């Protein structure tokens, strides 16, 4: 039961999963559209299958293999980026941050490295530092839409939603209809409990070419929070392996199990404004 929670603890529990999804998605393109889609090339061992289709055992083996490459040469830019990326995917955020600190020391002006460093800082909860890193990576004469979107995600986590949405719209000016940015914009409204606006942007994101499962997972959450549970589960299962689909549905159900608390929080907020 969660009825004994205070409104502030409801807010934390209800938005924490959505916030993580937003942060993760915002950086999906931050290092050259790598994320779960692919890793950088060069001296990195060739993987047996795409990272997004790996199970936990395969992902752990890939992390160990690339970690050994990084250990042999910590100054190898690609090895460092890929190792940190895999560490984040396996929940080892503090270690990923330590790796990216070393990569950033060796490549202090590399925008891709700085973007990945900001991602590691955000994943480790260092939001103010992450914001500074992402802003340092950005250049006014050659703005990067991926960094704009990443900055927006961090601003959302800092409670600066108007600024965040401005960054998303600037990113969309540079990269129109980009699904990851549209999804981040939708998640910004979801975090503010404006579910209908969130759904509008998330449906637009899901309809774009290149939209991945994380975009559809966010859409499923927005739809489910409005009571359309069957449609939400259908969206969460789309274009995934059975194992991935079950993981997505489990996440969705865990978030939707708190729907009553979401509604109670909304009533409490309304009472506070009267």
UniProtKB/TrEMBL annotation:
Transmembrane segments: none
Signal peptide bounds: none
Pfam families: TPR_16, TPR_19
InterPro entries (UniProt xref): CellSynth/LPSAsmb/PSIAsmb, TPR-like_helical_dom_sf, TPR_rpt, UCP035836
Keyword terms: Repeat, TPR repeat
Gene3D superfamilies: Tetratricopeptide repeat domain
Protein name per the record: Flp pilus assembly protein TadD
Originating organism: Sinorhizobium kostiense
């Amino acid at each position: 039961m969660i009825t004994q929670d205070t409104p502030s603890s409801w807010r934390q529990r209800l938005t924490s999963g959505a916030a993580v999804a937003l942060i993760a998605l915002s950086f999906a393109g931050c290092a050259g559209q790598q994320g779960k889609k692919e890793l950088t090339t060069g001296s990195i061992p060739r993987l047996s299958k795409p990272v997004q289709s790996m199970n936990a055992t395969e992902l752990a083996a890939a992390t160990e293999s690339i970690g050994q490459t990084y250990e042999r040469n910590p100054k190898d830019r690609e090895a460092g980026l890929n190792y940190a990326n895999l560490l984040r995917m396996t929940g080892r955020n503090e270690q990923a941050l330590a790796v990216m600190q070393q990569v950033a020391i060796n490549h202090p002006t590399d925008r891709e490295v700085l973007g990945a460093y900001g991602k590691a800082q955000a994943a480790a909860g260092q939001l103010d530092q992450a914001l500074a890193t992402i802003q340092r990576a950005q250049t006014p004469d050659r703005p990067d839409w991926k960094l704009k979107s990443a900055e927006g995600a961090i601003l959302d986590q800092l409670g600066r939603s108007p600024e965040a949405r401005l960054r998303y719209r600037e990113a969309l000016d540079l990269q129109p209809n980009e699904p990851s940015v549209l999804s981040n914009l939708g998640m910004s409204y979801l975090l503010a409990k404006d579910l209908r606006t969130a759904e509008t942007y998330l449906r637009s994101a899901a309809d774009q070419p290149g939209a991945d499962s994380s975009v559809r997972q966010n859409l499923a959450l927005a739809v489910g929070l409005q009571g359309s549970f069957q449609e939400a589960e259908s969206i969460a299962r789309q274009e995934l392996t059975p194992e991935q689909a079950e993981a997505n549905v489990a996440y969705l159900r865990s978030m939707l199990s708190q729907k009553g608390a979401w509604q109670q929080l909304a009533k409490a907020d309304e009472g506070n404004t009267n």
